[in-house]
UniProtKB/TrEMBL annotation:
This is Lysophospholipid acyltransferase 7. The keyword Transmembrane applies. Its main location: membrane. One of its GO terms (cellular component) is membrane. Keywords: Acyltransferase, Membrane, Transferase, Transmembrane, Transmembrane helix. The keyword Membrane applies. It comes from Araneus ventricosus (Orbweaver spider). Pathway: Lipid metabolism; phospholipid metabolism; Phospholipid metabolism. InterPro entries: LPLAT_7/PORCN-like (IPR049941), MBOAT_fam (IPR004299). It is found in: Membrane.
């Protein structure tokens, strides 16, 4: 939250959508997308974290840590839950991983779009994967397209949502092909560091789309 407040003071998001921004130079406007998008992400992170705090304060999403709870899914080790049934409840260690909606480090620093998507809005990701993606009987690319369209519709009717989310399948396909080609042509010891660099550059087109979306808000 501090990052959002500090960033908003230096580079207010409102300037990006105001007529005053057009008085700035072209390169300044291009540069302004980066701090604006940073502020946008920090604002979303703050909302996610505050939402998690509310759930924790109300005791929602609390499961024994031994049950290995996952975001949105709840406990995944049911045999551990049965074993805990005979123990003193006060001695059980609990986890709120079920309501942990954002993995900030992965969203910011993981090099691939696929990993970045999985780090973002994880409880909704689980719902989309379980009730949309896995329910479809079409090909994998079609599943991804339909799931992203449902996600865009769930977000709202703003065209930016559809531009951003419905373009993701294309980027995911290109990313997979780049990874596949690189793994075939590079030694194993070079694959991780160099693929990280390649994926970072490959991330830029999607980042620009997200930045444009952020400026609309």
């Amino acid at each position: 939250m501090f990052c959002y407040i500090f960033g908003e003071l230096l580079y207010p998001l409102e300037l990006a959508s105001s007529p005053e921004i057009m008085e700035k130079s072209f390169w300044y406007r291009v540069f302004y997308m980066t701090p604006s998008f940073f502020n946008f992400r920090m604002r979303i992170y703050s909302g996610f974290i505050l939402g998690e705090c509310v759930c924790i304060a109300m005791g929602l999403g609390a499961y024994p840590k031994a049950s290995i709870p996952q975001p949105g899914a709840g406990p995944t080790n049911f045999s551990a839950l049965e074993e805990l049934g005979t123990k003193n409840l006060s001695s059980i260690e609990y986890s709120f991983e079920t309501v942990k909606n954002i993995y900030e480090y992965g969203s910011e620093f993981w090099p691939t779009i696929r990993e970045g998507i999985r780090s973002w809005n994880r409880t909704v990701q689980y719902w989309l994967a379980t009730f949309v993606y896995k329910q479809l009987t079409v090909s994998k690319p079609a599943k991804i397209c339909v799931t992203m369209f449902v996600s865009a519709f769930w977000h709202g009717v703003h065209p930016g949502y559809y531009l951003c989310l419905c373009s993701a399948p294309l980027f995911l396909f290109v990313e997979a092909e780049v990874e596949k080609a690189f793994k075939l042509s590079a030694p194993y010891s070079q694959q991780y560091p160099f693929s990280s660099i390649l994926m970072s550059y490959h991330h830029w087109p999607h980042l620009i789309v997200l930045q444009a979306l952020a400026l609309k808000h």
